[in-house]
């Protein structure tokens, strides 16, 4: 019994946001051994993260340059909530240095200058740099871009190497799934919302039994169901707003869940 309840609980929490980056097209600048799948940009969105070493075939690996860029194309604008990055670590800890100073952007193009900066590292040191990084960034966008640079002439903090590479094993972008150009049920701020407008985050379709701009009201007395368009049986003294059952009783002379059975015992049409 305990296990069943736990599973239901987990499902309820995880259903709100999904990893919208999974298996989406990805790109990296300066791939190590171009053409070799072991190091391909797409390894960072393939859902595999059991081997975070550079040649385990589960990471995007590039070679050191002044600039490192990796991005995923979510293929349409998504409402993003948070981003989790699993960095390449493994046996060679030197890779940690490549990430110092990194930034994460959400953009509608592959250009960071047109995007929103979610995070820019200015505090991590080789000792504090995490191997799994998480940032909350509630922004609408189509590309999530990892970026780093070492400009010539700039004096960087201790521990920063001269060149950077992307070297990331998994990028999980948690956001709202898109259903028919709308967001799914759990992505609107309104509790009883069934479908949410992508641009405005305003609910456009309430769950059965609810109405109002924020789906905050139960159907008015006498109505129930999808769009509150169904009428309660008139033998009912007040019906359930969701399924129309006559929860609060029947008029005299009627019985049954929908008060559809007359005292003669003959069911009448609902
Ligand atoms: C991103 O994906 C969309 C939809 O598949 C496609 O039209 C667009 O060209 C892609 N962008 C890039 C930069 O490849
Ligand atoms: C991307 O475009 C959407 C409109 O489609 C807009 O709401 C959003 O703010 C844009 N995102 C960025 C990061 O510019
Ligand atoms: C990342 O942060 C979000 C909240 O912003 C949280 O729900 C999620 O569990 C965190 N993930 C990790 C791996 O820490």
Structural overview:
The structure is a single chain. Strands 1, 2, 3, 4, 5, 6 and 7 form a 7-stranded antiparallel sheet that branches. The protein has a 4-stranded antiparallel sheet with strand order 8-9-10-11, with no helix packed on it. Strands 12-13 form a two-stranded antiparallel ribbon. The protein contains 2 helices and 17 strands. The chain has 3 domains: 15-179, Sandwich (Jelly Rolls), CATH 2.60.120; 180-218; 233-270, no CATH class. Strand 12 and strand 13 (217-218) form a beta hairpin. With 270 residues, it is mainly beta. It starts with a helix and ends in an 8-residue tail after the last strand. The protein has helices spanning 2-14, 95-99, and strands spanning 18-19, 26-28, 67-87, 103-107, 116-120, 132-149, 168-175, 178-179, 182-183, 193-197, 203-206, 210-211, 217-218, 223-224, 230-231, 254-255, 261-262. The longest helix is centred in the first third of the chain and has 13 residues, at 2-14. It is 7% helix and 32% strand. Mean pLDDT is 87; it is low at 1-15. One 2-acetamido-2-deoxy-beta-D-glucopyranose is lined by residues 77, 106-108, 115-116, 139-141, 199.
Kindly report the CATH topology of the largest domain.
Jelly Rolls
User: What portion of residues is helical?
Assistant: under 10%
Tell me the count of domains: 3
User: Hetero groups bound?
Assistant: 2-acetamido-2-deoxy-beta-D-glucopyranose
Approximate shape: elongated
Portion in beta strands: 25-35%
CATH class of the largest domain: Mainly Beta
Instruction: Please give the oligomerization state of what you see.
Output: single chain
Largest sheet: 7 strands, antiparallel
DSSP helical segment count: 2
Radius of gyration over all CA atoms, rounded:
27 Å
Q: Structural class, please?
A: mainly beta
By CATH's scheme, which homologous superfamily of the largest domain applies? Galactose-binding domain-like
Mean pLDDT: 87
CA-to-CA gap between the ends? 38 Å
Low-confidence stretches: 1-15
Number of strands: 17
CATH architecture descriptor text of the largest domain: Sandwich
Order of helices and strands: HEEEHEEEEEEEEEEEEEE
């Amino acid at each position: 019994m305990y296990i069943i309840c736990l599973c239901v609980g987990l499902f309820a929490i995880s259903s709100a946001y999904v990893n919208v980056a999974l298996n989406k097209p990805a790109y990296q600048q300066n791939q190590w051994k171009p053409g070799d799948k072991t190091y391909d940009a797409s390894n960072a969105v393939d859902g595999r993260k059991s081997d975070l070493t550079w040649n385990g075939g589960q990471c995007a690996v590039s070679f050191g340059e002044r600039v490192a860029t990796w991005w995923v194309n979510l293929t349409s604008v998504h409402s993003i909530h948070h981003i989790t990055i699993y960095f390449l670590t493994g046996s060679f800890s030197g890779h940690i240095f490549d990430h110092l100073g990194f930034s994460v952007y959400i953009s509608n193009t592959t250009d960071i200058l047109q995007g929103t900066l979610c995070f820019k590292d200015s505090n991590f040191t080789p000792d504090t740099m995490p191997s799994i990084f998480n940032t909350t960034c509630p922004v609408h966008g189509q590309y999530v871009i990892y970026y780093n640079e070492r400009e010539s002439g700039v004096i960087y903090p201790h521990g920063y190497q001269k060149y950077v590479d992307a070297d990331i094993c998994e990028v999980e972008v948690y956001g709202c799934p898109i259903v028919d150009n709308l967001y799914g049920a759990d992505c609107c701020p309104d509790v009883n919302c069934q479908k949410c407008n992508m641009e405005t985050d305003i609910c456009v379709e309430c769950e059965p039994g609810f109405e109002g701009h924020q789906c905050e009201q139960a159907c008015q007395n006498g109505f129930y169901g999808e769009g509150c368009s169904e009428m309660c049986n008139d033998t009912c003294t007040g019906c359930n707003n969701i399924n129309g059952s006559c929860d609060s009783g029947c008029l005299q002379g009627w019985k049954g869940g929908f008060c559809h059975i007359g005292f003669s015992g003959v069911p009448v049409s609902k």
